[in-house]
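Dear colleague,

Following up on Tuesday's group meeting, I ran the structure prediction for the two-component complex that the binding team flagged. I've pasted the input sequences exactly as they went in, so you can double-check that nothing got truncated or mislabelled along the way. The structure tokens for the whole assembly follow below. Feel free to forward this to whoever is handling the docking comparison.

Inputs:
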Amino acid sequence: MYNALGVGVQATVETAAQFQPFFPGLIILLPLIGFLINGALALRHAQASASAVRLGGELDLGEGDHLPATHTLPSYVAPGVMLMAFLITSVNFARMLSVELHDPHVIEYWTWIATGAFTVEAAIQLDQLSILMAMIVTGVGFLIHLFSVGYMRDDAGYPRYFSYLNLFIFFMLVLVMGASYPLMFVGWEGVGLCSYLLIGFWFSDREKSDAGKKAFIVNRIGDFGFLIAMFLLFGMFGTLDFVPLFSQAADLEYGSRLVTAVTLFLFLGAAGKSAQIPLYVWLPDAMAGPTPVSALIHAATMVTAGVYLVARSSVLYALSPIASATVAGVGVLTALFAATIALKQNDIKKVLAYSTVSQLGYMFVGVGVGAYAAGIFHLMTHAFFKALLFLGAGAVIHSMHRSLHRTNNHQDPQDMRNMGGLRAFMPITWGTMWVATFAISGIWPFAGFFSKDEIIWQTAAFGGAAKAPYPMLYQVYWVIALVAAILTAFYMTRMMVMTFHGASRTGVEEVKHLHEAPPVMWIPLIALALFSVVAGWINVPEALRETFIGLGPLTGEWLHHWLEPITEQAHHIQELNLGEVAEQAPFGGGEVAWALVSTTLALVTVLASFQFLRRQNVTVAAEDTELSGLSKVLYNKWYVDEIYDRLIVQPLIKSSRFCWKVVDAKIIDGVVNGVGWAARALGFVVSMFQTGTVNMYAFVLTIGALIILGVSVF
Amino acid sequence: MITEALVLSAMIFVLGTFGVLVRRNAIIMFLCIELQLNAVNLAFIAFSRLMGIDGQVFVFFVMTVAAAEAAVGLAIIISVFRHYETVNVDNFKLLRW
């Protein structure tokens, strides 16, 4: 079968072994079962505590080994289902590795929607991209579930927490494994729901439940774009299933307006979910949730759904140079903007939140310059090192919280100004977090170096293509991406120095209670640290491999080839219309040279800022003075929340109040009441004619009969 | 021949109508309604000479209905009279707003 571009879309080799899926439905089903079990336990616990409150007391959970079953079973159920799901995914992954799977393997279960022309099957699609995403979701998800067992140990909402977490994994797997846009949308909305539930997990705190609502509402704006894009796609192709849709899409005209509209609307959805300008504001607030939630949902998996969406729709994006340039532009601006804010934050989770926003920007740069594999590559490495950073921060917060709690100190356990010198108490956390810091800063040979550098390089190469749409623009993108990379190295070093180095600022009494995390928490840290080192080696470009940077036989360009069945159509369109990408960066120099430059810059930044910041004195939060100038602007996040409040929220509230008080209460209610009053008044007047006199009625009847007679005769 | 019959019928009908409209005594009004019915009957008979037997069939129907009506109507008038001791319709104005 050949489409209009002449790309063979079916494997010509018939002799290759068929891909045999291994219970793929179970991958999705297991977290759902976990959710049902944990949810039942949560309800049981809620009943127990409600009846305790009715009796005038409070449910005492007891200490240590005497916890009720509702608080011990989830420790086994939740990570257990995750481990099983991960193992089944691994078997499928291994089977896919062993065969040449060219076309996606779609498994249909039942018909979900059937209306005349529009049919949606409840079907999952197994291909190189979805199985990779499922590996990340279940693998990192399992480690974070394990960490949560230690982190949430003492929380009264323990079973509820794990039921939400399992439900999230279920929806995330629907998102990445669904075989059509509507099914993806189900997962998309489901993870949004779980994100809301988990951000507002401690809902008795007003600020935290507000943060949940903010995340949900901001995401609705993006979902609107996703929906419009789906309507347009259905209008264009009459189907929303991936396989037929993309094979038809390849025949579209390059740069047509309809494709641009579709891709821009899809990107609006992606920008909402993946926290890009202008919809990034919810992600920093989402740090109100428990820290493992931040690691799982707001760093490793859910927020990367937008990148997955763009990569999945690579054929459409390749057809629209405007949309691709927008994606890359928004990505690079977000990368820089969020990095500047991260420079001045004092809350350890806020630094990581802005860092996540910034790294997501890089991923969008990757998929915006047609390097879809590079975007997914960075998504994967980021999932490892950012989950590690968040879990490390979680271990720090856990320890800080306990020590402040035991000494009745009401300082903020997340404020880095109250930390310092934690290295002595938490050596494992310290070591693993430095690994992650090297990875995110892009220092050779850690994972982030290979993924981030490939994105930056592809930006330069794409701008230098023979018929690139806006060559100047991509050169600017490239420079901004380099600058943001240096900022990343700086703010991450600042975070590490403030947390782990220098003198302790926690307080004399408090220090005695600081301790390393328990094994159930540090084992996931070690595992993730390992991946943060080696994950980059699976996708080293050919040019780098020929030099010492490539680490010789250890590494390969595996991921790039692995994703080829997904991206080849997009690359083909790109080659036809843009020509070959450049071999040289704008200021000269090839891939290897710039890789060396960027890793040297990152390393120098880390070392210099480490030396510089270590000597600086940090004041504790309680005694800190007001900032001024640019620092103040950065500390207040460029006042974006305030600007949104003035420009959007307040006018919306005012116009809503106007609609309520004037339009609804006065005009609409007035009209309704007026109609009722008028009917009664008319009835009163007309009732006057009803005299009760028989002769009168007979007279009217006669006149009426005469009129009808007259009309019918003449 | 038919012209005269129709003219007579019309005169009786108008007389009946006029009686219903101007008189106040319920029994008189009732008699006037009978007058109207019989005027119509006359017209039916006259037309049946020209157009076949159907008109005469209708007359039997009208007479049947008129007999039933007389039975019910007179019963109502009698019971009203027992209550009010009058049959002047001006006194019966309860059925209004």
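Helices of chain B lie at 2-22, 26-51, 54-84.

Cheers,
M.
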